[in-house]
Amino acid sequence: MQDFRPEQVINGTFGQLWIDDMYMAEVTGLEAKVSIEKQEVNQVGTLAKGYKVTGVDCKGTAKFNKVTSYFINLMSDNLKAGKTTTCTIISKLADPESNGAERIKFTGCTFDELTLANWEAKKLGEESVPFSFTGWEVLDSI
């Protein structure tokens, strides 16, 4: 295993996000995962269970400081008309002390819910926006 210096660990403070080429300066976090769907495969001659990959489930959540009505404006009219809002999301994480930058492009992104109001006295506004995606491409890796 190669040694590393502690300062090379990537700091999420240097993360950036774009939705359809629009830079989202108010982003505070992003998580995107691919869950692997498997079916158990019965085999003779072994006590161990075997598995066959049968699909993937691609989900994520973006977190934002509530600054604008961006998502309401993006999705409301489509939802009322029974249409799906689809976009591309690009995530970039580039800590200046790390060994490079990581950029991932998520395609076929659709949002799983729309929050119309969520506020509380003496609390800064935040938005959590869950989404699904159908594909991804690693644009840069570390």
Overview in brief:
The chain is mostly beta strands and 142 residues long. It has one helix at residues 70-80; strands at 15-19, 22-23, 27-41, 50-65, 86-93, 102-111, 126-132, 135-140.
Walk me through this protein's architecture.
This protein is mostly beta strands and 142 residues long. It has one helix spanning 70-80, and strands at 15-19, 22-23, 27-41, 50-65, 86-93, 102-111, 126-132, 135-140. Strands 1, 2, 3, 4, 5, 6, 7 and 8 form an 8-stranded antiparallel beta sheet that branches. Strand 5 and strand 6 form a beta hairpin. The radius of gyration is 19 Å and the shape is globular. 11% of the residues are buried.
Helical segment count: 1
Structural class: mainly beta
**Mean pLDDT figure:** 95
Q: Give the distance, in angstroms, between the N- and C-terminal Cα atoms.
A: 16 Å
| Share of residues in helices | under 10%
Proportion of residues in β-strands: over 45%
What's the SSE blueprint?
Blueprint: E1 15-19, E2 22-23, E3 27-41, E4 50-65, H1 70-80, E5 86-93, E6 102-111, E7 126-132, E8 135-140
Supply database-style keywords:
mainly beta; 1 helix
